């Protein structure tokens, strides 16, 4: 890692992601004194705009999407770093203007917060104005492709100009504190490290529920669906971190090699087993948090015949030594009752019951890792109820050992995922970014499920907005005598 100045060039600086996430994150890094004093921020967009207008635009958006009241000293420092360059990203000649804003002797970070369809144009443009050398880093936002084939095309276009060591593919879940904590939880605690396999674990649940709908993104979402939007990236990344073997070090490639092995070991789901292992759903009108919301097919701009899924549940199996016979149940959906993401590890039941008939069914221990909100880690244990009895038996009760981040780390602010990721790019650490082979392997698994769904003419199962998904998703676990963990 190197704490050196860089020119941070933000392509698509006037777009939604930059306004909502990237610029507010840079502001937070500034506030935390984590920006190198000599680093510059070069906003790039097609619009002809003066630097004064750009500064005004950034200021307005920071207030709108970041802190309501900006810290003046922080803003003054950030403002002094800002440059603006007007570039028509499809016109190779227009990139030369960047020469006036970047210093060839320093590292340049090119963040492509633009539609992936123009990643190739941008790389070509940078190349034609001779800005690219081996120190340049390029950051790519999702979606990288729509399937394996299209992701290869995008990766190829970028690889024509950049080496894999220079490419940082974002999955913002990898920047979330609690997702990062999966690594420390597993490998800094022998209590978990030694109990993390098929001998001790019955099954694992990974749920990422959202209360939002498609938020006006019909055009994008209907093409993608929840499988491409959430499973291919975020859920499979979480699964990889939960299931991977211990990496030899925390180096980027040690971690990514282990994640890749998990993806490769995922049992293929195809037409022969798709009905037993997956459930698709699509929300209908209902109430979320007391508010009436339209159904998926009634959203603005909707194609009323759409068969796109807004909910997915999958029973995934990892065919390797550690996880033989341990299902990983994945579940994610829009318009569910709450926004809640968690990983729940169900340990095996005790082999023998000492506690008599009243505790015939001793519940298994559970490790609940709350990714968001109310970040924390919780273990359910059986505990003796204190007190005397005249029956000679022991009264047991299920209790919780609960680590709540907001209590344990009350003085610490939980940074946004993008703050962490932007910092890591500037430090040149690829560990939290997805390697090309990981993306392509994830697509391979997902494509097979999508193809199996396409081969049936069945529409997704409806579920009412504000519920936990279609009835069949309950059946997916119930037929194996299991049930979804119920969040508070
Ligand atoms: C994005 C998806 O990648 O992640 C969105 O495109 C989704 O559809 C979002 O809502 C969820 O992210 P978070 O951080 O709010 O859980």
Automatic annotation (TrEMBL):
GO terms for cellular component: cytosol. Residues 184-484 form the Glucose-6-phosphate dehydrogenase C-terminal domain. Pfam families: G6PD_C (PF02781), G6PD_N (PF00479). It is an enzyme of class 1 (oxidoreductase). The active site is at 234 (proton acceptor). Belongs to the glucose-6-phosphate dehydrogenase family. This is Glucose-6-phosphate 1-dehydrogenase.
